[in-house]
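Q: Here's a chain of 372 amino acids. Please give me its 3D structure as tokens.
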Amino acid sequence: MRRALLGIAATAALLTGGCSGQDEAQVPAEWEFKTGDVMPTCPTVAPDGTIYIGSHDKHLYALSPTGEEKWRFKTGGFVHGTPAIVENGNVIFGSFDGHVYAVDPTGSELWRFKTGDKIESSPAVGLHGTLYVSSHDMYLYALDPATGEPRWKVKTDAKIASSPAIGSDGTIYVGSGDFHLRAINPDGTVRWKFKTGGKVLASPALGRDGSVYVGSDDHLIYAVSSDGAELWRFDTGSSVYASAAIGANGTIYVGSLSKYFYALSPQGKLKWKFNTRDWVISSAAVGADGTIYVGSYNHHLYAFSSAGKVLWKFKTRKFVFSSPTIRDDGMLLVGSDDGSLYAVKTASVSLAISPWPKFRADPACRGRIVTP
């Protein structure tokens, strides 16, 4: 989304969590893997530990758990969205060349499906395996996972950069540049549309009670019920392009172009905020110990306590647009616009037990609600 986006001191400590300073502990990387260009995607982790990551050098990479390259797959455009792993281990991802690709765990192409424009978003894997992917051609597609053949498509009135999210009943939620969030039934019929005051380029996150949380270009993050009614709205002060993450206690974490990172109660009340002094487009990941991790355009990844205190920072050489993920061994993986994937050791033994603890919900980045 960075390509699409280009063209105050804190108040009371309880609310701000402080300002971005130079005195927080800086931690080192365990390892680094370098690609040839910007790495905006969220790392995807397979059950065998293989890491999949896309780059603007037009490749999808498969890495060993310790960061050695296993293979790379070349496309005709930026690999901007996050890859998803289906149940049989195959990897699905989109490219700015307009194709959805399926490759097997050895890197061999299985099929490709051509949309009418570039794919900026990340695919979702439905409850019965159907793949859902959105495109700048204004369509959301449902694809057969074995062949890539389209089952149906739904047209919106503007390009779609938002990644679809799948609810526990199979409902697909997706935003569009036409100022709407849509709920779509598994058969492709539109259940409802919710109107915002700006483009919905952010990807929805789903709560345990079925609530949908999504940000908009109108500066607001919205909570919408599963039947399309507004529950609340919160003004962040600038455009929201990050997807929300949800903690084990229901706290909603999200950043915006206001340069602040916010913690909101399930009722939409501000718990705390932190000024990173640059855009927050990275979506947070919440660890099992309650630590929250998020990147900023100020070249840093932050680790916050649940009370909003900065525990430590990790510095890269450029923007942290990528959304982090946490492996079950506590290793945090995050990309940077410097073209590298970094591995940083944390005290979080895994992701939080939450319906949506990170971007795309789970380590396989299937984009569907996590159920106990």
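Q: Can you summarize the key feature?
A: The CA atoms of residues 73 and 242 lie 27 Å apart.
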